[in-house]
Amino acid sequence: MEIIYIKSSASHDLASFVSQSEVKIVNQYDKYSLKQISGVIIGMSLDLYELQKRKHEFEEFLQDGGRMFYSGHAAISFLSFLSVYEPINNIKLEDFFISKNSEHIIYKDLDIKYFQNSKGVAGFYSRGQNPPPKGAKIITSIKQGSVPCDWEFSFGKGKFYAHSGNDLYACSGDEAINKKVFNNILEFLGGKDE
Question: What 3-state DSSP class applies to 171?
């Protein structure tokens, strides 16, 4: 089974993370099929209105056991269970501190402190939430644990993982850590769980 990365022209270059044979890279505006696909990566720079056009196809993919990983601010609900992004108002430095709520394969062998700052600057990880649906497993949070950042939601036989910030595999400011995160994402999308 194959994993696809849906990219926009503004998406991060994945050449340093994976070879084309491991992940099929498709342009968001091109025709692509979810048949014979085990996982889908959706980055923060995509046209969400374009994704919304494929809502039923993505939800059918999840219902049948597919997995999706999404980084970004959901400006629109491009899936029925995904709520619109809510930023933190009047944010302060201490609000950026990340809490780990649950173990997850995405963070396997990684310390959450790696994501606290990127090149000395806080806030790249998250500044708010894509509010989790009822029944979602909360993985990380900010603002003293009160604002969920990462969550996983079971939908049919499949799973959807949301990170409400910049592309998670580009958040740490360290390429080796970013590569490890990306490889963990691939394991998750391939069906492995913590």
Answer: coil
Structure tokens at 187: 């394991």
List of E strands, the chain: 2-7, 23-27, 37-42, 67-71, 86-87, 99-100, 117-118, 121-122, 128-129, 137-142, 147-155, 158-163
Q: Is the dihedral of CA 187, 45, 102, 114 positive or negative?
A: positive
C-beta separation of 28 from 50 below 8 A? yes
pLDDT > 70 in the chain, percent: 93
pLDDT of residue 111: 93
Buried b (16+ CB within 10 A) or exposed e, 5-28: bbbeeebbebeebbeeeebeeeeb
The residue type at 131:
P
Distance CA(64)–CA(169), nearest Å, equals: 26
Q: Is the pLDDT of residue 77 over 90?
A: yes
- pLDDT tens, 97-143? 999 999 999 999 999 999 988 877 888 899 999 999 999 999 999 99
* Model confidence pTM above 0.85: yes
Q: How many CB atoms lie within 10 A of CB 179?
A: 15
Say how many residues make up the chain: 194
